[in-house]
User: Fold this.
Amino acid sequence: MNRDDLVRDTYAHFGLAIFKAQVLEHGIVNAMVVTRMPDHGRINRRDIDAFLDKQFENTLGQLLRELKKYAAVPDDVSQLLAGALSTRNWLAHDYFRERAEDFVTDAGCHRMIAELEGAQQVFDQADQRLSWLVKPIRERFGVTDAAIANEVRRLSDVQFGLDG
Assistant:
């Protein structure tokens, strides 16, 4: 692999890690919507959109504090989420500054890629555990795995002009 490819791959792994942090943020907001459902009966799209807009103004740390207002978060999930917050903040605020010397060598870039893959796993694990936590609640309201898969297919079909 040439130097340009290695630098590109390092940036790509960083981008994927930050993307997965944002997926987790969205998952936290979705979890708050789901955990509010039993208290609100039927909620409409406008209510959901207003809630989403308000929550997406928050930082990841604020979202985690808000989540605990809506759901009992077991200690293991809380620890995963706290680790994800720490990892996200490190990536967003310090990563390239702390890795400046590594970034100029091939061996350093390879270490960075491995490290960034580890960060991606932190976000994936936290998101999976959070999803597991809210699954029973969302299923009570008909938001099953099959319903989610059908909606993803529908949205993909619309986006790619396959809707008829």
